[in-house]
Amino acid sequence: MPDDIPGIHHVTAVASDPRANYEFYTETLGLRLVKRSVNQDDVSVYHLFYADHEGTPGTSMTFFPYTDARPGQVGSGQATAVSFLVPAGSINYWRDRLEDVGVDLEEPRERFGDTVLAFTDPDGLPLELVAREDAPPANLPESPVPHAHAIRGFFGVTLSLTSGDATGDLLKAMGYRQTDREGRRNRYEADGDLGYVVDVLEDPQAPRGIPGAGTVHHVAFRVSRDDHPDWRQLLMDRGLRPTEVIDRKWFESVYAREHGGVLFEYATAEPGYTVDEELDELGERLVLTEWLEDRREEIEAGLPELSP
Q1: Can you give the pTM of this predicted structure?
Q2: What domains can you pick out in the chain, each with its CATH number?
């Protein structure tokens, strides 16, 4: 059996305007652009990675910004909210900060004993800030957000499903344990310090999600390279159809769409974002994998300008 999963590695979503996306996640949320590359399956589109200073697994929110993307519909069969972890006492700061720049947000509410502030990004992607006493130290030395309130990384994701039984069983096989329930929301937790929560929200009447700008493309979980064969076997034993191991340069991945329709990725921590850039230079230039480097001129000509 593979080792239990400690939490989320990264979350990837679809956006529209890359410049608006960049400005929101770096200037408003205070994250660092740690990798500027392209979608390896569609090199006409950026792949932008925002994270803490080092791009630590568990902190990395990534995007495919299609300039002609139609708005998607958030709904069943998707990750319908991405939650970031902030320190206890930071919600009022963030409410004021987000209101000042015109972000669409809700009033803070309590969920499982935590204060949660829900809002959306420029494409309507549902985001949340969850305030916790156990938030780890900040690792964003040059962030426009004060360290006392800075985002620490992921808290978790919400999966909206017509039925959560099969997904819950898979999460338990991945090392998550069910810890609580509120109405139709079931909470599963792993033994990590970032991205350790998956909430499964069951609603048989919810409309089916439609991919597009403002929706999550996939949720990636942290695994070890040695465990990839065991993860593939576990997924196949559960009736899923995992891919072969795919080299993404900064991590190696296996993908499978779980029974509720959400695309899961099982990604390694190694070799990380500094394998092809110095730490202090992360995100400053377009980085291509060696198998795309000979197409650099063509790729750069097809991308819109993005000047940090």
Answers
A1: 0.96
A2: 8-301 (3.10.180.10)
